[in-house]
C-alpha cells in the first residue's frame, strides 16, 4: 500500500499495516531494528484515521491496541481529564501482562524465541513514548497549578512500561538513554503506593544503561532515602547494587593484569561506582539502617499487610516472579493443611487461615531482603572507604547480629519440602536460601580480610582463649586482640567463626558452599601470620577436615581444591605443630602420594601451599629447637620439599605455566611463589646454582632460552605492576615475612643487564636464544 503525499507518515506507512505473521517474518529477517529505529512522532502516529485502523486491526491481529492508544492520546493533552486515561489503560494492560507472564513462567530460551505481538504493537504505535510523556507531563508544565496524576494511573503506566521492556527488544535501552526520565523515576519513589513498580522499572533500566548513573544527580537523594521504611530501603538496595558495583566486563580473575593496568592508567580518578559509594556513606544513618535490616529477626518484621499487598501486585515484580511463585505455592499448601486440620471449624476460620501469612513465607521474604542488604554492605567493605565502613558496621553490631541469626535463618535446617524455585532444585545456586548463604560468606570474607576487626567474629571467651594460647607459647599477644572492644564481639556460647567451622565440617562433599566457607576462614588468617589464630583453628580440627577433603574424599572440584590449598597454607605456615598434625594424619605413603598428586595436578591451584611449605622449611632449618628438629626429620612433607630436585621441579613448572600476556589475579601468585624460592636461595648464596640448573633443565627439554626468557619478561612486568601499588606490596611482605625491599632488590639483581653477573638471568641465556627486549603489551 502506497501512502498519499499528505500522509502523516510518508516514508513507512506500509510497515504499519503488516499483519502479525508478516511482522514475525520481518523480525526473522532482521527488520525489527529497522522498524524500531523509524518510530513516528506521537502526533504522526495518532493522526491515522480511526476507520483505517479499524479496517486493518482485525486482519493484522492488533487486538485494538492502536485504537486504544489513539484514544489515550486524545485524552492526555495538557488540559485534558486524566480520569479517562486510566480506564483506557485498564483495557490495554491485560493484553500486555499476558505476554509478560509467558516470558517469566516459560523457559527463558523458549520465551525469547516466541513473538510478543501485543507489546510489539504497543511500542510500534508509540505507546511507550506516550506513557513517558503522560508520567512526566506535570514536571514539564510551567503553569502555577500543576496537573495531578492519580497513583493508580502512575502504577498502570509503570506496569505497562515494564511489561513492554521485558517482552520487546530495545525498549529498555531506549528508556535508559533518557537521563531525564531515569532521574524523574526516582521522584516517584517517594510515594509508597507507586514505590514497588517504580523500583522494578528503574532496576531494569539501570541494568542496561551504558553509563552508570551518578547518585549525586538524583534530586534530594538523602531525604528520599530517609523517607523509606525498612522494606522500601531493602528493595532500594537492589537498585543501589547496580550503581556501586563496577560495570561487569567479564570475570575479574579472567581479565589479564596487562588489561587492568592499562585501564587504570586511563582512569586516573575514582570511578563512578566509587563516587556513588562515597555518596551513600555521606547519607546520615544509611549504614546503621542497613545493619538493622541485616540483623533483624523474622519476628521483628513490620507485619504482613504490606507484603500481602506486594503479593497481590506480584505481576509488577516480574524479576522475582519465580520466587513469589514458590512462596504462593507454599502459602497455599500451608493454608490447605491448616484448613484440613480445622475442618470442624466454621467457614470464617478457614477464611482467616487463607489471609494469614505463613511462617515459611515470612522467612523467605526476610531472606530476599537480607540478600540485597548484605550485597551492598559487602561491596562497600571492598571499596575505597573500607576503613570507614568497617568502623560503622562494628559500631552498629552487624557481626553479633548475624551471629544471633546464624542457626535460625542464615544456616537454618531445611524441611523435607524446602522452598525451591520453579524449574530449579534445592542445590541450585539460584535458590534464595543458597544465595543468602553465599552472600553471607562473601561478607565474612570481605570483613576479615587483612583487618583487625576480624576478631569481632569471636566471643569474649574465645578472645580469652587466644590470649591463653599466646601466654602458653610465651609469645606476645596480638595488639588487635588486646585492643578489641569486647562490647562489640559476638554474644552466646559460640562466635561466628566457630559456628562457621561447625557447619563447614558437616558440609556434604558435593556442596557448593565448600569453596566459600574455605575462603571465609582463610581470610581470617590472612595478613601477618598469627600463631594464636592458627592454634585456635587447629584445636577445632580444621587441618584434619581439610586433609580429609583433599585426600580421603579426593575432591575433584578445581575451585574447592584451590580454596583448601590456600587455607591449608595459611593454617600451617611457620607452625611446627601444624606440620606435626599433618604427619599424624598423612601417616602412610599411599595417603602422601594422593596428597602430592592433588598438588601436582594443578600448580596454579596449589602454589600458595607450595610457597607456605618452602617458607616454613627455610625457617625451621634455621632453628635449633629439639621439637622442630624432630618434626623436620619425621614429616614427609618437609622431607619431600627439602630435596633440591623437588624445589627445582616446582620452580621450573611455576615459571613455565605463566606468561605476561596470560597473567591474571588468579595465577600471578605463581610468579610470586617462584620469586620466594629464589629469594630464599639468594639468602643462602645459592642463586647462581638455581639459575644454572634452570638453564640445564631447558637444554634437557631441548628448548634452550625458553624458560629464562619468559622469566625475564615476567620479572619486568612484576616491576611495573607492584612498584606502583601499596596494597599488593604490603600483602607480599606480610604473607612471606620477607621485606618488600628484599623482593625489589632480588628482582633488580635478576634483571641486571650485566652478563658477567652470576645472579643475572641474561648470564644464563646464550646469545643465539636471547629474546629479552621484546615489548609486552596486551594481545
From TrEMBL:
Domain of life: Eukaryota
Listed SUPFAM superfamilies: ARM repeat
InterPro entries with a match to the protein in the record: ARM-type_fold (IPR016024), TRPC4AP (IPR022162)
Record-level Gene Ontology MF annotations: phosphatase binding
Entry GO CC: Cul4A-RING E3 ubiquitin ligase complex
Gene Ontology terms describing biological process: ubiquitin-dependent protein catabolic process
Signal peptide: none
Region (Disordered): 334-354
Protein name as it appears in the record: Transient receptor potential cation channel subfamily C member 4 associated protein
Gene behind the chain: TRPC4AP
Amino acid at each position: 500500500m502506497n501512502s498519499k503525499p499528505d500522509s502523516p507518515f510518508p516514508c513507512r506507512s506500509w510497515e504499519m499495516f503488516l499483519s502479525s505473521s508478516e511482522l514475525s517474518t520481518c523480525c526473522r529477517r532482521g527488520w525489527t531494528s529497522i522498524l524500531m529505529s523509524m518510530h513516528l512522532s506521537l502526533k504522526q502516529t495518532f493522526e491515522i484515521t480511526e476507520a483505517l485502523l479499524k479496517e486493518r486491526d482485525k486482519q493484522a491481529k492488533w487486538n485494538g491496541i492502536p485504537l486504544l492508544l489513539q484514544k489515550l492520546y486524545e485524552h492526555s493533552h495538557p488540559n485534558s481529564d486524566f480520569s479517562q486515561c486510566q480506564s483506557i489503560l485498564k483495557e490495554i494492560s491485560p493484553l500486555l501482562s499476558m505476554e509478560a507472564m509467558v516470558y517469566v513462567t516459560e523457559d527463558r530460551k523458549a520465551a525469547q524465541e516466541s513473538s510478543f505481538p501485543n507489546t510489539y504493537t504497543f511500542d510500534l504505535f508509540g505507546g511507550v513514548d506516550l506513557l513517558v510523556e503522560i508520567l512526566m507531563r506535570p514536571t514539564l508544565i510551567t503553569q502555577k497549578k500543576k496537573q495531578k496524576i492519580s497513583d493508580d494511573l502512575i502504577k498502570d503506566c509503570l506496569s505497562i512500561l515494564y511489561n513492554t521492556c521485558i517482552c520487546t527488544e530495545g525498549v529498555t535501552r531506549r528508556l535508559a538513554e533518557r537521563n531525564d526520565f531515569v532521574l524523574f523515576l526516582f521522584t516517584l519513589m517517594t510515594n509508597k503506593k507507586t514505590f514497588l513498580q517504580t523500583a522494578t522499572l528503574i532496576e531494569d533500566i539501570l541494568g542496561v544503561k551504558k553509563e552508570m548513573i551518578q547518585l549525586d544527580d538524583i534530586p534530594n537523594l538523602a531525604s528520599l532515602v530517609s523517607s523509606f521504611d525498612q522494606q522500601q530501603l531493602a528493595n532500594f538496595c537492589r537498585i543501589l547494587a547496580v550503581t556501586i558495583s563496577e560495570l561487569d566486563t567479564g570475570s575479574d580473575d579472567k581479565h589479564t593484569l596487562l588489561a587492568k593496568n592499562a585501564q587504570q592508567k586511563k582512569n586516573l580518578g575514582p570511578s563512578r561506582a566509587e563516587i556513588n559509594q562515597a555518596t551513600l556513606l555521606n547519607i546520615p544513618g544509611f549504614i546503621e539502617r542497613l545493619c538493622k535490616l541485616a540483623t533483624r529477626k523474622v519476628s521483628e518484621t513490620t507485619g504482613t499487610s504490606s507484603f500481602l499487598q506486594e503479593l497481590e501486585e506480584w505481576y509488577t515484580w516480574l524479576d522475582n516472579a519465580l520466587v513469589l511463585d514458590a512462596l504462593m505455592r507454599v502459602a497455599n499448601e500451608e493454608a490447605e493443611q491448616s484448613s484440613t486440620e480445622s475442618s470442624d471449624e466454621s467457614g470464617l476460620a478457614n477464611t482467616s487461615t487463607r489471609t494469614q501469612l505463613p511462617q515459611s513465607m515470612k522467612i523467605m521474604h526476610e531472606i530476599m531482603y537480607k540478600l540485597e542488604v548484605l550485597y551492598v554492605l559487602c561491596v562497600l567493605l571492598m571499596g575505597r572507604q573500607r576503613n570507614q565502613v568497617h568502623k560503622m558496621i562494628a559500631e552498629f553490631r552487624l557481626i553479633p547480629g548475624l551471629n544471633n541469626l546464624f542457626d535460625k535463618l542464615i544456616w537454618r535446617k531445611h524441611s523435607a519440602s524446602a522452598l525451591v524455585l520453579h524449574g530449579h532444585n534445592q542445590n541450585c545456586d539460584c535458590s534464595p536460601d543458597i544465595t543468602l548463604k553465599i552472600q553471607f560468606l562473601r561478607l565474612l570474607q570481605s570483613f576479615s580480610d587483612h583487618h583487625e576487626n576480624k576478631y569481632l567474629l569471636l566471643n569474649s571467651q574465645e578472645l580469652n582463649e587466644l590470649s591463653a594460647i599466646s601466654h602458653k607459647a610465651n609469645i606476645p599477644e596480638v595488639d588487635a586482640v588486646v585492643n578489641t572492644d569486647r562490647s562489640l564481639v559476638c554474644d552466646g556460647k559460640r562466635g561466628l567463626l566457630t559456628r562457621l567451622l561447625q557447619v563447614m565440617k558437616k558440609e556434604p562433599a558435593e556442596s557448593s558452599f565448600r569453596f566459600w566457607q574455605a575462603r571465609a576462614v582463610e581470610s581470617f588468617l590472612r595478613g601477618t601470620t598469627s600463631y594464636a589464630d592458627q592454634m585456635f583453628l587447629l584445636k577445632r580440627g580444621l587441618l584434619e577436615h581439610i586433609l580429609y577433603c583433599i585426600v580421603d574424599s579426593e575432591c575433584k572440584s578445581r575451585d574447592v581444591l584451590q580454596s583448601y590449598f590456600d587455607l591449608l597454607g595459611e593454617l600451617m605456615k611457620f607452625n611446627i605443630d601444624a606440620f606435626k598434625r599433618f604427619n599424624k594424619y598423612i601417616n602412610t605413603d599411599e595417603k602422601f602420594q594422593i596428597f602430592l598428586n592433588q598438588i601436582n595436578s594443578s600448580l596454579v591451584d596449589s602454589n600458595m601451599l607450595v610457597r607456605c611449605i618452602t617458607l616454613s622449611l627455610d625457617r625451621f632449618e634455621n632453628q635449633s629447637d629439639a621439637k622442630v628438629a624432630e618434626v623436620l626429620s619425621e614429616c614427609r612433607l618437609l622431607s619431600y620439599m627439602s630435596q633440591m630436585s623437588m624445589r627445582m621441579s616446582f620452580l621450573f613448572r611455576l615459571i613455565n605455566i605463566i606468561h605476561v600476556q596470560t597473567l591474571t589475579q588468579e595465577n600471578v601468585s605463581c610468579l610470586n611463589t617462584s620469586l620466594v624460592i629464589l629469594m630464599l636461595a639468594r639468602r643462602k648464596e645459592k642463586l647462581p646454582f638455581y639459575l644454572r640448573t634452570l638453564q640445564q633443565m631447558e637444554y634437557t627439554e631441548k628448548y634452550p632460552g625458553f624458560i629464562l626468557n619468559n622469566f625475564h619478561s615476567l620479572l619486568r612486568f612484576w616491576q611495573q605492576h607492584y612498584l606502583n601499588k601499596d596494597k599488593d606490596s604490603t600483602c607480599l611482605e606480610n604473607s612471606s615475612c620477607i621485606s618488600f625491599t628484599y623482593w625489589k632488590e632480588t628482582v633488580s639483581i635478576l634483571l641486571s643487564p650485566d652478563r658477567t653477573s652470576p645472579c643475572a638471568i641474561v648470564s644464563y641465556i646464550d646469545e643465539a636464544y636471547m629474546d629479552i627486549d621484546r615489548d609486552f603489551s596486551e594481545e
